Amino acid sequence: MSRIIPLAAGALAAAMLLPATTQVVSAKEYLIRYSDIGANRGPRAAALNLWKKEIEEESKGKLKIKFFWGQSLMKSKATLKGVGSGLAEMGTVIAAYTPADMPVLNYGNVPFNEPDPWVGIRAMQDVRENGKFIRAEEKKNKIRMMFQNVTGPVHLLCGKEKVDTLEKLKGKKIRAIGGYIQLFKSMGAVPVKIGFGELYSALDRGTVDCTVNYTVFVKSYKHYEVAKHLMLAGMGQSIGYGGAINLKFYNDLPQNLKNILDKASDRYMDNYGKNLIEYSKSAAKEMAAGIDGKVLNFVEIPQAELDRWADYAKPIGATLLGKMKHMSEAERAEFADSFKAAVAKYRKIKAEKGYPWER
Fold first, then answer.
1. Continuous segment of H or E residues that includes residue 242
2. H/E element holding 227?
3. How far, in Å, are 179, 182, 224, 240, 311 from residue 314 at the CA level?
4. CA 249 to CA 95: how far, in whole Å?
5. How far apart are CA 354 and CA 359, in angstroms?
6. N or C: which end of the chain has fewer CB within 10 A?
7. DSSP notation for 68-84
8. Is residue 94 within 8 Å of 86, Cβ to Cβ?
9. Rounded to an integer, what distance in angstroms lies between the CA atom of residue 71 and that of residue 77?
């Protein structure tokens, strides 16, 4: 599936219609088509564009990256299969969308896990690189995750009504993914499964009352136009997703180009963590002040109330571990312990040294 292509317009257009296959030509330049879930805006897009710039410059044009934003090449739920089969060389893979195929990575979506973006990114990547379970899962799906993404703290965005207590959650239609589906169902809400790209219309039409959401994405996707309240629940964050490359394409790259891709991808994670933290603060300030007359109400939930919510999350870790049917009970415990240890490791690094960009 590795592909070396010329950059002549006709050859490029023809190659775009085919799965990735090896084509050796004089130019020996590699095109990476990247299928992304979102629009070309916000902290993740900014980090991706910098990642692209660094790779193309450092490879002196040997690696070329073409983004297909907003699911324009394939739907988000199809990205895992699409990248694995070579329909695209890379894409943003979300474990919560294909939990049966990626149950190990999906463990990163346990509610009330680590809420800090940088800690979450580095902890999961640490487990991936220093353990055996995530890489084995990726190999089975014919992909390799190049970098880790996170959503930032999971909050609750509601269209009309302020839903800030367990009692108010009862019967509410809430869009959720991953472990948050089980969480809200156990709290008496009605989980609704719809794609992130459909949220604007769902909130506008009242198809859902609320949705799990993240401060910066409320702004970048303009959800503040159709929602009035953001409950600052801080229910951990979704950690189980990132940038995946077709495994054969990656393995067939020359070692020097692999090194460039690897190093740029490692830098990407710090860049994205920094962007997400800074963009979130800026977005909150702007939406609270009002954008084009639309003011978002930020609702602080008392810790005692959040503790009630967190109690319902306690069984979910065991449930997600139970989905790893290919692993023994001892292996599941080993993996869960490694994730817990990695979170503690990066919390300690942050406490003692601060974020990398602050040093």
1. strand 241-246
2. none
3. 11, 11, 31, 18, 6
4. 21
5. 7
6. C
7. E-TTSSS-GGGHHHHHH
8. no
9. 10
Note down the domain range covering 104.
1-359
End-to-end alpha carbon distance in the chain: 41
CA distance 245 to 2: 11
**pLDDT tens, 197-208?**
889 999 999 999
3-state secondary structure of 253: coil
Look up the CATH number of the domain holding residue 330.
3.40.190.170
Give the pLDDT mean for 213-224: 93
Round to whole Å and give the CA distance between 324 and 108.
13
In this predicted model, what pLDDT tens digit does every residue of 68-82 receive, in sequence order? 999 999 999 999 999
Largest CA-CA distance found in the chain, in angstroms, rounded: 67
Residues in contact with 221: Cβ distance below 8 Å, sequence separation at least 6, in sequence order: 38, 39, 196, 199, 200
d(CA 170, CA 186): 10
Distance CA(138)–CA(160), nearest Å, equals 41
Residue 310 identity: A
Q: How far is CA 189 from each of CA 233, 278, 297, rounded to the nearest angstrom?
A: 16, 32, 22
Query: Tokens in use for 87?
Result: 């329909």
Residue 304 CA to residue 212 CA, distance in Å, equals 20
Residues 283 and 41 sit within 8 Å (Cβ to Cβ): no
Least confident of 22-26, 85-89, 197-201: 22-26
User: How many domains does the chain fold into?
Assistant: 1
Measured at the CA of 101, the angle between CA 193 and CA 45, to 5 degrees, comes to: 65
Q: Which residues sit opposite 92 in a β-bridge? A: 243
